[in-house]
Amino acid sequence: MRDLEKVYDPTLVEDKIYKMWEAGGYFKGVIDPGKKPFTIVIPPPNVTGELHLGHAFDNTIQDILIRYKRMQGFAALWVPGTDHAGIATQTRVEKEIRESEGLSRHDLGREKFLERVWEWKHMYGSRIVEQLKKLGSSCDWSRERFTMDEGCSKAVREVFVRLYEKGLIYKGKRIINWCPRCTTALSDAEVEHEERESLLYHLRYPISGSADYLVVATTRPETMLGDTGIAVNPKDKRYSHLIGKTVVLSLMEREMPIVADDFVDMEFGTGCVKVTPYHDPNDFEIGQRHGLEQVLVIDGEARIINSGKYNGLDRYEARREVLADLEALGLLAGTEEHKMNIGTCHRCGTVVEPVASEQWFVKMKPLAGPAIEIVTDGTIKFVPERFTKVYTHWMENVRDWCISRQLWWGHRIPAWYCDCGHYTVSREDVSSCEKCGSVNIKQEEDVLDTWFSSALWPFSTLGWPEKTADLEYFYPTDVLSCGIDIIFFWVARMIFSGLEFTEQIPFHTVAIHGMIRDDLGRIMSKSLGNGIDPIKVVEKYGADALRFNIITGNAAGNDMRFYAEKCEAMRNFANKIWNASRFVMMNLSVEGDNTLPAGLPAQLELEDKWILSKLNSLAREVCENLDKYELGVAAAKIYDFIWDTYCDWYIELTKPRLQDAGATGENAQRVLLFVLKEILTLLHPFMPFITEEIWQALPGCGELDSKVLMIRPFPKFDETLCFTKEEEEFESVMTAIRAVRSRRSEMNVPPSKKSTLTIVTDKPGLFEAGKDYICRLAYASDLIITSEVPGDVNNLVTVVTNDARLFMPLSELVDVEKERERIEREITKVKAEINKLEQKLSNKQFTAKAPENVVQAERDKLNKLIALLDNLNESMV
């Protein structure tokens, strides 16, 4: 045993403890046929990234789960790694080169630019890993992966080729989402939609050879430069005589056919739709059906092309010019305000442009079917369950996934083009065309969507496509913890990829957490300037305080607000544990070779059985909560037990016994130490640093007990420590003490002012057993336990519990009339609670559908309230 410092300073402890864990190899996942594996793969943060509160939240959840399972005896493995983050990383490096050297990536060329990105990755890529360590993340760093390392790259190629060979990857021209700022295609999942105020423009299209015209409404008049037709519904009698005729696109002097198509809604607007095949997904399909001309009028930087005098204009400048020219020609029929959903790039916020482009796609329907079924049949569960519907709705409506990106940084698509028109898709680099044998071939310039490699993360990180020992033992993984925002980006793709390539689920549970917002409920962002650096919080309060802050009070799937002052409260909690531990250690009879006997003493006092029974229940409930991913509930229960039950009550209860030099004192020490060890173990997954530091100082640790706390067996329910009767009896005593102390506090009676205390009860033996505690802790100079109510209750202050009425002769310190008013208010309150419970229990739907234990708990609560009301009424006599 060694002494603890007077004050806990996390800056002196946390790095030291983490190095001890790493040096001991305690994070390492070891294949052990005698143990059941438990595996988590980290959602890989961007290699460009720095730790933000969202990372801190997500990784704290994962660390709690992996530490808990490790302590339960599982062969626990938490696989860490980082994502190459195509767009984010390339943009970051491009900006740095541009600002420092005045060069673009095109000035450097692809090969030189990629060399610079790799240099940047090696220089800064480990920053977020070091920050995760600061948080206490117990990952197996010997297995750290990167989405572009050799193994993951091999897996990517294998998957691409397999899908291509099955006909599930194809190259084709489709309408895709294009970001003009990132200058790349985006998948549907990478587009965020937001409602904005807009305008709806009504445009006239003159009918050829006639003075009449058709009116069409659009929110994007600049796209009319690419119009190649007008569509009407074939059943619309208003326009049936015009089908087959043409209209004139006056701005481009282009004649366009009027076609009949069932897609057109006769009830919407005028029933006419302008068709711009290259700039709208629905128009693209109409154009395909009717063989309409395809004209690209917006380029990759959102500038106008193929449109005469409008060429070179930005899309919004072109809109203004087009509207001005239409008005001058009398072809602008009107304008009205209109709300619409605008698609924006999830990365930079730029309004995306729908554009027809030659891209690579994954056919999603064949992959989505099994991925939907495996969730709807409950094989994979979402926590909370409500997110199952979010997942299935998206998967049921999923479109083919655009997987090509016009970037240089990423997994280059393994396809090689030949002048003969054929392209070769291969697992290995090729030097000649597989069709004609020509060596004049060129690899595809585009790279794969970052999420393509991330989708393989649960099994590629364990060695797939090779049949490795890690893959055999640790896969499938167990739980995926992630935010709501990546259900579509990542979760869905991992599920269908796991089923397709391993014929197994990638994990059995998806634990969804919400977002961390600021104290005003706003999303944290650079633009608002409300972001909080978790590393600075760690430096100020310690990692344990931050971890416990963001876990307590959080409900799965719900957003939470971050209050910095709560970190201070959690630091105070750490200090409470530290001071309690110092008190216990200072009162242990451990000197030289003398040690306390291991375990609990044979002779237990009433308060010992009370604390042990409550601790036993706590262990059971915490395990149940953690198994259901109710981490915030578990943390709150541990907090309450440590602060209130152990520190404020049990330590106080044992102080007189600690003065005894004999067996009485030793027994108290042994129970104090036993409970301290157990609560440190329960708390460890949540606050690993302070608990480990205290553990290392305790007597017997490393000899009679676990060398390090992080691998000590996690507490579980023990039938031999279940003292239900004694716990209930002592709770009655404690309730009486709390009631007296609370009443005295309300009346500002100091502890030094003692008085006679009369307890009227039909359970005299219960209070006789607790007589010493009541006298000392309820500040009683004398204690009378009786079944008879004192004669002159009007001159006594009364306190009522479920099991007793307590009377104190303090009439000289209290206004008797005010005391009567207080009891009346209490009666009113209890009557309201009784009425509420009676209504609930008379509801047949509740009693029929709720679990029996829940219904019984409500009945028990009602009976206790009725007993309390009787006691209150008697107190008014």
How would you characterize the overall build of this protein?
The chain is of the alpha/beta class. Helices cover 44% and strands 17% of the residues. The chain is built from 28 helices and 29 strands. The protein has a 4-stranded antiparallel sheet with strand order 6-5-14-16. A 4-stranded mixed sheet has the order 10-11-9-12, covered by helices on one side. A 4-stranded mixed sheet has the order 27-26-29-28, with helices on both faces. Helix 10 packs antiparallel against helix 11 (387-396), helix 19 packs parallel to helix 21 (663-683) and helix 21 runs antiparallel to helix 22. The radius of gyration is 36 Å and the shape is elongated. The two termini are 59 Å apart. The mean pLDDT is 92.
Task: Quickly describe the structure.
With 877 residues, the chain is α/β, with parallel strands linked by helices. 44% of the residues lie in helices and 17% in strands.
Could you give the order of strands across the largest sheet? 6-5-14-16
Q: Return the structural class.
A: alpha/beta
Indicate the proportion of strand residues.
Answer: 15-25%
N- to C-terminal distance = 59 Å
**Mean of residue pLDDT values:** 92
- CA radius of gyration is 36 Å
* Largest β-sheet summary: 4 strands, antiparallel
So how many helices? 28
Number of separate strands: 29
Shape: elongated
Poorly predicted sequence stretches spanning 5 or more consecutive residues: none
Helical fraction: 40-55%
